[in-house]
Amino acid sequence: MTDVVKKVYDTEDDHHRIFLVVVDDTEEMRVALRFACMRAKSTGGRVALFRDIEPSDYHHWASISELMQQEAREAAEDRLNELAQEVVELSGQIPAIYVRAGPIRQELIELINEEPTISVLVLAASASNDGPGPLVSHLIGKGTNSCRIPITIVPGNLSAAQIDALA
Question: Cα–Cα distances in Å, from 67 out to 3, 25, 51, 71, 105?
C-alpha cells in the first residue's frame, strides 16, 4: 500500500540538487541529516526528508490497525516538523517532506524513481559492530541496481565538526 504525502514548501529551486535523507529513530540518522544539510548549503541545493510508516500487523483487527496507522502518521509528522526546523537552521532552506506507508525498501525506491528532482540519497552507516544497518546493507547489495541516483553513505560515528569539514 502506497500512501503519499508530499509537501514542497518552495519549488522555485527544483533544478538544484536535492539530498534525500531517510528519517528513522537511529542515532546515525542525525549524522546523515547534518551531512545532507551542510552539502545542500555548500552547493546551493536542498534537503528532502522521507519518513516511512510500516504497515500494521493487526490486519484482523481493522479498527485497531487504522488507529495504530493514524498514531504512527501523527508521530511521523511531528518528528518531521522538528527535523524541518533543524534543516532550516543548518541549510537555510525549507525541506521537502515525504511520508509514505508500506515496506520501506519498496517505498524509498519508488519515491526516488517517481521524483526526478531527488538527486542524491544520503544515509549514515551504523557505528555499531553489527554492520551498517539493514537499509544500507540492502541498498549497497541487492538494491543498488534499482536506485537511479548516487547513494552517499556517511560513517555514523562522525562528529558535527568532522561533518562540517567534509561538506
Answer: 16, 21, 18, 6, 24
